Amino acid sequence: MYLIDFVKRLVQMRNISISIYLLLNTILLMLIFQDPILGLILYVCSLALALSPFGEWILRIQQGCKPLSRKEHIDRLMPLFDEVYKKAKQLDPTIADDVKLFLNNDNSPNAFATGRRTICVNKGLLSYSDDEIKAVLAHEFGHLSNKDTDLILIVAVGNMIVTVMFVIYRIIFNVIGLMSAVVNRSIGTLLMTFFIDVVLVGLMWLWTKFGMVLVMHSSRKNEYAADQFAAKCGYGDELIHVIDSFNGLEVSASKGLWANLASSHPDPDERIGNLQTVDAS
């Protein structure tokens, strides 16, 4: 059921750029391995591991997510989380039944969703009102509902595999080139090896930038969708207050879906205008 719903969302128009990049990455991996079946199997196995509970656990560790431990945090945040969780499940029953709330030590007013069962709040968000925190949580449930976290994870895993294979290929190519230049005492072979290596690095840089452009395009669309989900949960006005506070505020780009893609977020005023349209309708 989840897989079918995920595929449906992947081919939606707002995710078409991610779908294109995913397809191109898959083709590239097949070419690198020179065996389409082997490349596809490795890619699918890597994605399955990344999307598993183990992969999500690794992501939580990487992003500094810790279970709530202090009594004042539990007493304040858990009732807010449970209230929003209930409304989110009513809107989208496909959201996992065991989503957990975590906290990290980042002082930026931020929160993010990771995997399928993790929402993490930065300590910096605790300076906001309870209603504003609920609005942010609803936004993050919107990302879980829209499977945005899995989409980004798929792209990240694909990039990681391509990067690893590229590094291995570079090492082998340079070793062979250097050995050939030494054995043949050929400066020309050495220069050609260096030139081809520079070209390969440039192509890899362009590929990565191309992927980021496509991901950012979909991410901007996904932010609107997550905002609309929060509004449907009943937190549109509160989310407007939160987004408005981001005007002129530099959001940390170190962790999580929201934070890692902060530079790809739509303009705050455009998001607010879109939310006002949702509320008006």
Automatic annotation (TrEMBL):
Keywords: Cell membrane, Hydrolase, Membrane, Metal-binding, Metalloprotease, Protease, Transmembrane, Transmembrane helix, Zinc. GO terms for biological process: proteolysis. Its cofactor is Zn(2+). Residues 103-277 form the Peptidase M48 domain. The chain crosses the membrane at residues 16-34, 151-172, 187-207. One of its GO terms (molecular function) is metalloendopeptidase activity. The keyword Repeat does not apply. Gene3D superfamilies: Metalloproteases ('zincins'), catalytic domain (3.30.2010.10). It comes from the Bacteria. Binds 1 zinc ion per subunit. The keyword Secreted does not apply. Belongs to the peptidase M48 family. This is Peptidase M48 domain-containing protein. It comes from Cytobacillus praedii.
